[in-house]
Design goal:
10 strands; alpha/beta; five-stranded mixed beta sheet; binds 5'-O-[(R)-(carboxyoxy)(hydroxy)phosphoryl]adenosine
Length: 336
């Protein structure tokens, strides 16, 4: 079964062709990063307009790269939630029109379920159940993946997402947008214990997290140093910050995994590319005996292939939609 998969929830327009869930025939991506860099963050209205401009050509490119024609497409999948609503709607409406025109099923895919599915593309042997830490620019979640389409949210950030935190701190340091990658590179060789940054605790919800205090503390540290005319040891600051983010994520992930007892832990989303978080997860899983599944770096960020992969499993579960399908800014990953 060939699925044409569309992703447009944030600042990447992506169209892929995926065969039977796990074979990626093509994965075309148009990044808008250059445009949003001017503003130091994603401007939603610009994102929607750029998606609109890119999506038709990208779909043609995905078909050509896959070596298939429109008649070879058996279904169309698209991210329908969560995301920037104007951006999501561009992909949803494009997918609807293609599904209608080709007279094939339309499959709505939850963006975070797509990120989780990037692990199936990296690890052909991986099957649910497993626990997944989902960390991106807009979401930070701990998810019980009981089955391909049966999931439960166990914990989440109460405020900022981990990726957003990296991006804001990087912006104040003036090291680029999106900031997670540059912060990661800057942290190499730094001393992660040099700067003291807070760790959060949410009363009564041990798997929930908070990043706003950490973000404020990091920004205050930078501003105080600037006001006093002191030089920050930037690699050590970046390493201390990455360690603080990782300390929010990894112990909670391990605690959730131990309570479930699946023996399998995965990570997903753009922030899952972070070297400190990956290394801490690897150490923790070596100690606990759990098997760790990390998506390959090229599949951590937004892409169409992950939507095509998850779309296949949603289709097998009977989760298709009619032309009334809408997009949503928020939706629980458990609802799908
Ligand atoms: O999954 P993604 O591409 O988009 C969303 O669905 O949000 O994630 C983008 C986020 C950005 O916040 C970016 O700064 C962050 O992932 N990111 C990283 C790294 N690479 C990308 N954060 C930390 N370390 C990285 N190496």
């Amino acid at each position: 079964m060939n699925i044409l998969a569309v992703e447009s929830s944030c600042d990447e327009t992506a169209v892929a062709v995926v065969r039977d869930g796990r074979t990626v025939l093509s994965d075309a991506i148009a990044s808008q990063v250059d445009m949003h860099t001017i503003y130091g963050g994603v401007v939603p209205e610009i994102a929607s307009r750029k998606h609109l401009g890119a999506i038709y050509g990208l779909a043609d490119q995905a078909l050509i790269q896959a070596g298939v024609t429109r008649q070879d497409i058996d279904a169309v999948a698209c991210t329908y939630a969560p995301g920037l609503i104007g951006a999501v709607l561009v992909g949803v409406n494009f997918a609807k029109s293609v599904a209608y025109g080709l007279n094939v099923p339309l499959i709505p895919v939850h963006h975070i379920r797509g990120h989780i599915a990037a692990n199936y593309l990296t690890h052909p042997d991986l099957e649910p159940p497993f626990l997944c830490l989902c960390v991106s620019g807009g979401n930070t979640l701990i998810v019980d993946v009981r089955d391909y389409t049966h999931m439960e949210l166990l914990g989440a950030t109460r405020d900022d997402a981990a990726g957003e935190c990296f991006d804001k701190v990087a912006r104040v340091l003036g090291i680029g947008y999106p900031g997670g990658g540059p912060m990661d590179r800057l942290s190499q060789g730094g001393d992660p214990k040099k700067y003291h940054l807070p760790r959060s605790k949410v009363d009564g919800a041990p798997l929930d997290m908070s990043f706003s205090g950490l973000k404020t503390a990091a920004l205050n540290l930078i501003h105080n140093a600037q006001q006093k005319g002191e030089e920050l040891d930037l690699p050590s600051f970046a390493a201390s910050f990455a360690q603080a983010v990782s300390d929010e994520l990894v112990p909670r992930t391990m605690a959730a995994a131990q309570s479930l007892g699946y023996g399998k832990i995965a990570a997903a989303g753009g922030v899952a590319a972070n070297s400190t978080i990956r290394a801490q997860l690897e150490r923790a899983c070596r100690a606990s005996g759990d098997t760790l599944y990390l998506p390959k770096l090229s599949l951590c960020g937004d892409n169409g292939a992950m939507i095509g992969c998850q779309g296949y499993y949603e289709y097998l579960a009977g989760h298709t939609a009619g032309m009334e399908l809408n997009g949503y800014a928020n939706k629980n990953v458990g609802v799908g």
